[in-house]
Amino acid sequence: MLISFLGSLPLGTLNIAAMQIGISEGAFVAIQFSLGSLLAEMIYVRLSLVAMDWVRKQKRIFNMLEWLTLIIVLVLAAASFYAAMNPKVDENLFLSSSLPKVILGFLMSAVSPAQIPFWFGWSSILLSKKILKPTPFYYNFYILGIGIGTLIGNCVFIFGGRLVADSMKGKGHIINWVIGFVFLITAIIQLWKMLRKKDPVQQL
Hints:
By secondary structure, this protein is mostly helical.
């Protein structure tokens, strides 16, 4: 739970998206989005624990997911800039789609491969130190802790974003500009990582 919480604090696509949803549609809706995203994360971790060798070999899938993630982040940035430049639009058109937020969060998390190397590494360390034992009982509580930690980390952004938005009422365009630039910087960092490492599975 602690590893997951701390890992959720650096700016990223999912926590910024949750914050933007929280600002535009309320904390409850943003928490639904976060629940969907952490569900995908928990599934990824559970699969990686029982199929580590298979995960290592999926180079093509990793490459596809990385490019798809980059496209999604660029779309989020563009939608935020569009909302900032149009006073009549106060929501990110991508995030305010009619798709249920749980499903939107699940899909956005499912196509983001960055969490796989993160948890692959931590799981390997914890297994080697015998803190995490290879039994269903340990695995299930480990996954539960990951889900709780991610949710708490996202809540920091959701409720923190709400506080900032409440203190800047009438200046929604500024918030959209800031969020747009965060997404754009995230996309640049993502592209740089992809070009720097030709083999995404090296991160594992």
